[in-house]
């Protein structure tokens, strides 16, 4: 009975968080608290974003041979315009940025011009280097690899040092140590493994390869001055519409095998990250792993409590579960997008990103949405 009471308590607490924090915390963010004043108030001087389409705000559309996303992508963004986000509106990077006191995610690196780089070179606001379809492995996708994203950040830092007014790299390092480095990656590596029908016997070597590369990326950012890492883990891939559509009973349940693949990697990565910090390999570093896996699993299992009506089908697309054809300009899309967990066959709606960001940012760690601390505790330390 005690166990049931605890579970009920946390479910109630989650409902309160989602009902109150989603509606209130963004409105009461530092940026809003500064309304009427000349300056916004930010919890960190800058946000630097790395990863895949869950946090990409437009880098891919600047790549040679890439065509920009079209409406209905961006239909709920201000002025109903596509921005390169794989969403109907804002994404996770935007809502984390909002909770830090910014208006939205920092700009896409490839969109920067000398005029738009002025604040960035002073170490303010930050940059978004994320690229849709990229992965932890350089062989995943055909866009800006995580290795290249970090190289771009190194170039940004060099320019910051050059523009530091003679104060040198120490002042830039101090500023970077107070900034948040947000990383959301790994899903595309898992999708690639599933699409080539990787076997169970190959999973250990996949994990080893991913862990070796991911920890290398974290070390590289640490060497460049990163000290606060906000890392978003891999969501339950078996619950996304494009994967559910391949299963005979996908309309009623997630695909267990795909979920297990993501869950196993998440567990292994948390252990590797804990060992890395405990060993002293990342002096001065602190981290929070925001669990996209736990967030989406909870939303899927308790849609009503989370404010969703549809958690299996995509809002935009076609075919079974609206996930067998893409979200193209002539695709059908739902009118009540805030009630859908998924926008297209893979990506969450703006509503999902908003609620998920609040959970990993503010929910008590014992709820399982972030560990060992939440994002707010990370940036407040």
Describe what this molecule looks like in 3D.
The chain has about 375 residues and is an alpha/beta fold. Helix content is about 40%, strand content about 10%. It is built from 14 helices and ten strands. It has helices spanning about 1-25, 30-35, 90-100, 120, 145-160, 170-180, 185-195, 205-225, 240-245, 255-280, 290-300, 305, 350-360, 375-380; strands spanning about 45-50, 125-130, 180-185, 230, 285-290, 310-315, 315, 330-335, 340, 370. The chain has a six-stranded mixed β-sheet with strand order 2-1-3-4-5-10. The chain has a two-stranded parallel sheet with strand order 6-9. It has a two-stranded antiparallel ribbon with strand order 7-8. Helix 5 packs across helix 6 (about 170-180) and helix 8 packs across helix 10 (about 255-280). The longest helix is centred in the N-terminal third of the chain and has 23 residues, at about 1-25. The two termini are about 35 Å apart. The model is unreliable at about 1-5, about 20-30 and about 30-40 (pLDDT under 50).
Keywords:
381 residues; alpha/beta; disordered N terminus
The proportion of residues forming helix, as a percent range, comes to 40-55%
Large-scale geometry: globular
Strand elements, count: 10
Mean pLDDT: 91
Across the major sheet, the strand order is 2-1-3-4-5-10
Structure, briefly:
By secondary structure, the protein is an alpha/beta fold. Helices cover 41% and strands 10% of the residues.
């Amino acid at each position: 009975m005690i166990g049931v009471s605890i579970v009920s308590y946390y479910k109630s607490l989650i409902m309160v968080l989602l009902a109150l924090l989603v509606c209130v915390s963004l409105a009461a963010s530092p940026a809003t608290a500064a309304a009427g004043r000349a300056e916004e108030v930010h919890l960190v001087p800058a946000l630097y974003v790395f990863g895949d389409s869950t946090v990409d705000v437009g880098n891919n559309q600047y790549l040679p041979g890439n065509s920009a996303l079209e409406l209905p992508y961006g239909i709920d963004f201000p002025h109903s315009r596509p921005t390169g986000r794989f969403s109907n509106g804002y994404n996770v990077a935007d809502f984390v940025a909002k909770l830090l006191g910014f208006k939205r995610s920092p700009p896409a690196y490839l969109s920067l011009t000398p005029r738009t780089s002025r604040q960035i070179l002073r170490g303010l606001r930050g940059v978004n280097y994320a690229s849709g379809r990229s992965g932890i492995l350089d062989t995943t996708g055909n866009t800006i690899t995580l290795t290249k994203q970090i190289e771009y950040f190194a170039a940004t830092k060099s320019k910051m040092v050059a523009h530091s007014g003679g104060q040198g790299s120490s002042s830039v390092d101090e500023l970077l140590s107070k900034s948040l480095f947000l990383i959301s990656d790994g899903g595309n590596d898992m999708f690639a493994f599933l699409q080539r029908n990787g076997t169970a016997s190959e999973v250990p070597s996949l994990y080893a390869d991913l862990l070796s590369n991911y920890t290398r990326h974290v070390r590289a950012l640490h060497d460049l001055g990163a000290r606060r890492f906000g890392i978003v883990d891999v969501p339950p891939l078996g619950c996304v519409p494009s994967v559910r559509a391949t299963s005979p009973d996908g309309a009623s349940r997630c695909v267990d095998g795909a979920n297990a693949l993501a869950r196993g990697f998440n567990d292994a990565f948390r252990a590797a990250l804990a060992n890395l910090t405990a060993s002293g390999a990342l002096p001065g570093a602190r981290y929070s792993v925001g669990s996209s896996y736990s967030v989406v699993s909870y939303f899927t299992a308790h849609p009503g409590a989370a404010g969703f009506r549809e958690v299996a089908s995509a809002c935009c697309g076609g075919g079974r579960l609206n996930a067998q054809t893409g979200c193209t300009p002539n695709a059908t899309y739902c009118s009540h997008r805030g009630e859908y967990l998924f926008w297209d066959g893979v990506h969450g709606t703006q509503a999902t990103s908003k609620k998920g960001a609040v959970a990993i940012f503010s929910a008590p760690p014992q709820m399982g949405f972030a560990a060992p601390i939440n994002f707010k505790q990370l940036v407040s330390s």
